[in-house]
What does this fold into?
Amino acid sequence: MKKYAIYTDEKTKQFLLSATPKVILIGGCLGASNFGDILQLKNMIDYHKSVTSLVPIVIFDISNLNEDVTNNAMKLKYEVEHIIYCQGTLISNISDYSLELVNQVNEINNLHLYGGGFLNKHWGAMYTELIEFLLETFRVKSYIISGQQIDCDYSEQFALHCKKYSPSLVGVRDNESLKNMQFHGVKAIFSFDDAFEALLKIKSKTTVNRSTSNYLLHLNTSSYTGNLLTIQKLLKNINIIKACYPEFTPLIANAYNDMRIFVSDSLSTIVKLEDDFPYTQYEIIDFTKVAFNYKDDELMLKMSVNFGVSSSYHITLLLQMLGIPCWLNSNNEFYDQKSIALGINTSLEKFLVSLPYSNDKDFNEVRLKWLRNLDSFFNKNENTYDIKLDVDLPQIVKKEKVFLAYSAEEFEEQKYWRNQYWEETQRLGNDLTWQKEQAEKYWQEMQKLNNDLTHMNKWSEKIKAELLEIQKLTVFKIFKKFFRK
It folds into this structure.
């Protein structure tokens, strides 16, 4: 088992030693401001506050703290009292974060692994190591899994994890994940998405107008999307939309407010496209702020768009729920699985002609059934007080200094490396394009040579036949001359 250091503030440090019934929440949101991840976490926090009466303790990544977004700011944004940060090394300057190292904890009976798409070949092992550390360190008895997208490549490994730690319920958000887990002997249930109830609240606050010359456009060229290496394909898609609907203006959806080097949502993608981006005027909707404020009575959204084209699963799902056709861009297996889950199985060109959309009725029924299972489980397992164990946490020898994210100096360094990363990616993209052109050239040349060879073989056969005829005639003449004598 990999060991982690646990950090939190003084209030939560004392709370970890109390007997108050708690639930550890870990999932797709580790503190980064992503529309879908925010909604999944906030929805599950609300679920436990209102249904189970367990006090949520949220697991975050310390790299998402910065000079403006402190631990207290995180607690306000996510409406939660307790956050802990797990790190594989000891942080020597942890006081810079107004946090402390936790040396002792009590047992926590409940851990809820809520939704997201992280159980795959890219991030699955990292998450599973942390989850297993939390299960063993806090001696968890009730382990619940919900809303997961689990890919084919990681399903066997995660099935082994399930067999070892015996979760009471395993909920997945799509049929492919269900098949993957059931194939490996895990009794998974279709729970659908853990952001669903939050999306329903946003739907109730949104006025839709499709009789308009606008469409929603969301662009994400973050490294995990596969779009960065195919940015020209993304640009081609934008130009296809413009050619099909030349009078339409885009409503740009920004779904990720994050300055990390590998994150690049709509606004930064438009900057990357530079003069190639074909629109001079557009409006912007900040879905991150919508996610943080979706329960506010004052929040009222006007969605005046005829259709949408998105790189976000949750934006696509929201538009489908609003009755607005939306196409999800996909350039890798991770997004292919999301597209299939949302019933998107056509090309952009065909989508723009027919503008089909899905009905969320089936999602409603599936989700209600899952929530009844979840409610029933927690009602059967009445919240007993957490046992006071004073468990000594494992010692971690290695120390490191971690900088507060995005101080002025760090920001300049991030900016420099982002530019270097972009230039290198462009170079690799150009190299790849050149190699593709060369491969096509060689293929055409091989086809030509193959045709020439086929032609030569035909001529060879013809010449061979003619020589055979000449040989026959020569022999015939010799015999004829001989017999005359």
About this structure: Confidence is low (pLDDT under 50) at residues 403-408. The longest strand covers residues 142-150.
